[in-house]
Design goal:
The chain has helices at 4-18, 66-73, 87-99, 119-139, 148-156, 182-187, 208-218, 236-251, 266-275, 290-297, 309-313, 328-339, 342-356, 361-376, and strands spanning 25-28, 40-43, 46-51, 55-56, 62-63, 78-82, 102-106, 142-145, 164-166, 194-199, 225-230, 258-262, 278-281, 302-305, 320-323. With 378 residues, the protein is α/β, with parallel strands linked by helices. It has two domains: 4-170 and 360-376, Glycogen Phosphorylase B (Rossmann fold, 3-Layer(aba) Sandwich); 173-358, 3-Layer(aba) Sandwich (Rossmann fold), CATH 3.40.50. α1 (4-18) crosses α14 and α7 packs across α12 (328-339). The chain is globular and about 65 Å long.
Amino acid sequence: MDGGVERHVLNLSKQLVRLGNEVEVFTCKATRNGGTLESFEVIEGIPVHRYASVGGLGEFGKIWPGFGVDLLKGRFDVIHAHSFRHPHTDLSLLVSKLSRSGSVLTTHSPFHPGFVRGPLARALVPVYDEIVAPITLRSFDRIVSLTMGEAVILEGMGATPAQVVVIPHGVEEIHFRATDPAPFIAKYGLGGRIVVLCLARMNRTKGLGILLEAFSRIAPLAPEASLVLAGPSTSKLEEQFRDELVARSRSLGLGDRVVFTGRLSEEEKAAAYEACTAFVLPSIYEPYGIVLLEAAAHGKPLISTRSGGPSSIVTEGVDGLLVEPGNPEQLARALLSIISDAALQKRMGERAREMAREYTWERVAKSTSDAYRSIGGN
């Protein structure tokens, strides 16, 4: 499960069930890499219904209208949609009105700068935001924003302050437990190394090329440091980009000091966090940055960019450092300042762990349940 939205839905659903709610998930059969999943499955006690797509609108996602009929057949107190500007979101709103169910939308910060979008999305987003969004946003009973910055944007597009509630992502429990990093260190030959870890999809928006350039600048000053780029390639474009990064690391003379792990299991991710000295997410654009919270739960100092979500998580100079997106010089200075200062690592890591405790999925689910209950009071 590579996507942040999918992980969010799974973890929120599990916690809502633990709080005594009945939850069913309706989603698409198609996967990011072109695969197809089963029509129905029960995951950790949660019924998951999947539907075939009949087309797509680029970054607006797949169109899978079949779920609307099944939603109308059910008797749901609340229909909670995820992802703004997607066809399933607007259809779920229509169904909620027809069935007189409460309607909730978690938008998941889809406010990317234009340069990271494809041509179709660049053409459609302004039209949707100008004509459709004001109607859609005002029609939901509650709108969940991940950050205060996102809430401001949503209110500027037509949502009212009474509708919007800020509820961030949560951190999975595995990241608050002690994990042995030894197997990860042994597998990737990291014994005795200072490990700089980045965990992200091999996507250009994650700033991995910038990170590689920054690491090449500090490599001569920190010969004991290794860079670990962990994460999957979920499309052909991402596979091509990964190949470019591998070739670039060789041309920079970094040799085996840059490690590409590919996809990691949740247990391997936890071990990777434990193994690192500092965690970096150098995104050109980042709607949130769950991995920052996960690394923080392991007590690691954070380095990221002033790019939306990370600015709401990292407190500059307290639990990490923030740099301008796309600036390898600033990123190199931030990396060197942390990996060369053990006292700073310890102080920032401790503060990061304290911060992460505010982001448990139990807290997120309780806040979400409160949002559901508040609908009936209006």
